[in-house]
Amino acid sequence: MGSDCESSVVLVTGGTGLVGQAIKYVVENGSGRKNEKWIFGSSKDADLTDRASTEAMFLKYKPTHVIHLAAKVGGLFGNLSANLEFLRKNIAINDNVLAMAHKTGVQNVVSCLSTCIFPDKTTYPINETMVHNGPPHDSNYGYSYAKRLIDILNRGYNNEHGRNYTSIIPTNVFGPEDNFNIQQGHVLPGLIHKIYLAKLEGKPFTVWGTGKPRRQFIYSRDLARLIIWVLREYKETEPIILSVGEEDEVSIKEAAEQVAIAMDFKEGFLFDTDKADGQYKKTADNTKLRKYLPEFQFTPFPQALKETCDWFVENYQRARK
Ligand code: NAP
Ligand code: GFB
């Protein structure tokens, strides 16, 4: 971003979501700079699947930088139920945002991929060079192909227009302001919500699947700090994985045990093995991130979970669920 004296306007598309609100939190708690104006957009500002409303938003705010988070997002079960919609909506959003960024002269765009878009049949750990080396897990092919096209678009804008638009590859994210809807959301917010309800009934909660799949989880507020670093300092067009290390990968069963502890719940849980497991693992390699930021400290998982659970209980009425 510009030097400290140049002013910047940073537009965060998808600014009202889990990751967008984490960026707002860290910007308001020490990560912002005097010469930066931050705008957190949502679908109320513009339906980004529509080219004209996307252009109108860019002309209104005149961003110099964009953090592009807006997407149709869901967990395993949300994706399983609507792969075509995930594909079409996200292709439209991504093409519109990058086209309008280029048309209005935005200097830097950081867009979001996901570790779930990696090839399903692959060696581990997976690194940034492997994104396109084979089909993604079938459970979320729609979302995955739409996300992979961001990387291809970035290449095109770089090759033909010299734009330095780049992307990040976060692993599974959780935190305050998540989507706690049990059917459509991700596993951790789903388990938190289930335990909240189980507490009221005094019964065990249900973990879907076998509990055997493995995941790396990144706290939204840690991801937010890393995204701001990428916007300001990362100069490659190639994507960069933003994830905890391979050693922090846990099974869904272990994650459920940690969530129960964070919610102070002692009634135990059952497995519903009629429900899908989805991808067994998608272990990401954060070596590239560590080369740039060897000292970056992730929030310990139990502390991040506790902060998220406390937020949910305190904000139950207004939380997305
Ligand atoms: P989220 O909580 O579901 O928020 C999605 C955001 O996108 C909301 O602000 C939403 O606005 C906006 N949006 C959706 N459709 C839109 C449209 N048609 N026009 C304008 N805005 C629209 O998502 P998130 O978890 O923060 O994800 C943010 C980014 O991180 C996404 O690109 C996602 O693919 C990526 N990511 C997420 C995870 C994860 O585990 N959560 C993991 C890897 C990557 P409204 O609220 O107004 O609808
Ligand atoms: O976060 P999640 O829904 O998505 O995790 P993915 C699914 C895993 O958690 C499966 C188990 O193994 C589920 O069987 N699970 C257990 C649960 N209990 C629950 C529950 O209550 N809710 C949910 N949702 N799962 C997503 C992709 O994959 O990863 C998205 O589909 C996105 O596109 C996201 O990229 C980051 O991690 O399997």
Please describe the structure with a list of short key phrases separated by commas or semicolons:
2 domains, binds NADP nicotinamide-adenine-dinucleotide phosphate, alpha/beta, Rossmann fold, 41% helix, 321 residues, two-stranded parallel sheet, UDP-galactose 4-epimerase, domain 1, 15% strand
Structural class: alpha/beta
Give the CATH class of the largest domain.
Alpha Beta
Bound molecules: NADP nicotinamide-adenine-dinucleotide phosphate, guanosine-5'-diphosphate-beta-L-fucopyranose
Strand order in the sheet with the most strands: 2-1-3-4-5-10
Q: What is the chain-wise order of helices and strands?
A: EHEHEHHEHEEHEEEHEEHEHH
List the helices and strands and how they pair.
Blueprint: E1 8-13, H1 18-31, E2 36-40, H2 51-61, E3 65-68, H3 76-80, H4 83-103, E4 108-112, H5 141-161, E5 164-170, E6 172-174, H6 187-201, E7 205-208, E8 214-215, E9 217-219, H7 220-233, E10 240-242, E11 250-251, H8 252-262, E12 269-272, H9 287-292, H10 301-314
Parallel strand pairs: 1-2, 1-3, 3-4, 4-5, 5-10, 6-9, 7-12
Antiparallel strand pairs: 8-11
This protein binds NADP nicotinamide-adenine-dinucleotide phosphate and guanosine-5'-diphosphate-beta-L-fucopyranose.
